[in-house]
Amino acid sequence: MLEVKNLHAYYGKSHVLHGVDLQVKKGEIVSLLGRNGVGRSTTAKAIMGLVDATGSVKFNNKEMIGRKTYEIALQGIGYVPENRDIFPTLTVEQNLILGLKAKSTGQWSFEDMYKMFPRLKERQHTQAGVLSGGEQQMLTLCRTLMGDPQLIIIDEPTEGLAPKIVELVAQYLQELKRRGLAVVLIEQKLAIALEISNRVYVMGHGNIVFEGTAADLKQNAQIRKEWLEV
């Protein structure tokens, strides 16, 4: 479904990604792991056309490099950014409405969102700007799903959240897996990533340094020590 080859990305003159290769199959959850600053979020932004990039990003055999971000989203790639990017003066329900596409299969409904996160139903008429950090994360996850993506890229969904909210997000990710949605998960919490992922990639210095199953990574103490553990 997603095939990234020799991806290079830049912030001005700063060369951040140095030939990233990765693949995601239909219905597969793939985690992109690594310490802060190694290029994980930049990889997501490069796929979405948010930074200058060269190489190849093919989605359903169509080249995405050179397309505008909204064009990439319309092809069926959803993106949950690390900073959430909710619309603070709009209500929860209005934020969800903004996620809708003109042409949608209707796979995800308001009822689905409120069932996964009942707190959002309680707050549906509340301005998003007054929500807690955990509630805002729930909202941006759900707003992306309302666009009916075939693949969703989720950047650090549990960052800074209370343990109870982290558990809710983990359940959300399991629901995506159950429904067969392809996911690229960028996550610091190794336990969550290894629990739900079909495969994992580990990044270091702007490139992929390991690819394998969750079980492969669990057995590779050297890779974990060199590239993941603090």
Strand count: 10
Residue stretches low in confidence (pLDDT < 50, at least 5 long) are none
**Anisotropy-based shape:** globular
Distance between the termini: 33 Å
Q: What is the beta-strand fraction?
A: 25-35%
**Domains, number:** 1
- Over all CA atoms, what is the radius of gyration? 17 Å
Q: Please tell me the overall pLDDT.
A: 92
Overall description:
The protein is α/β, with parallel strands linked by helices. The protein has one domain (2-227): Rossmann fold, CATH 3.40.50. It is built from ten helices and ten strands. The strands form two sheets. It has a six-stranded mixed beta sheet, sandwiched between helices. The chain has a four-stranded antiparallel beta sheet with strand order 2-1-4-5, with helices on one face. Helix 3 (92-98) runs parallel beside helix 6 (133-146). The model has no long low-confidence stretch (mean pLDDT 92).
